[in-house]
Amino acid sequence: AQEQAIRMNAMKARIEKSADDPQCRLCKEADEAIDHILSCCKTIAQTDYKQRHNTVAQMVHWNLCHNYHLPVAKNWWDHKPEKWSKMSMQNYCGTSEYR
Q1: Contact, 44 vs 28, CB < 8 A?
Q2: Considering the chain, what percentage of its residues have pLDDT values greater than 70?
């Protein structure tokens, strides 16, 4: 969809000359526009953005395991990667430093 096809507060205030506040309804820190909602809004940064990131990481991990014939769930969305701690990293790799 084109960016201007979705009516956000900033567009309503500037283009349509409405009396609406152009600020984001969630954080009130920036103009409410598509790019702000998709990647910049601090109010949803630790919820929606983190969930989106974790879902992508889960799919990438499943594909890597699947390609290297490691045991995985049938579907990527059912895959639950094992959590690694600094201690388990040290036991597995001989170091806790990421390279």
Answers
A1: no
A2: 79
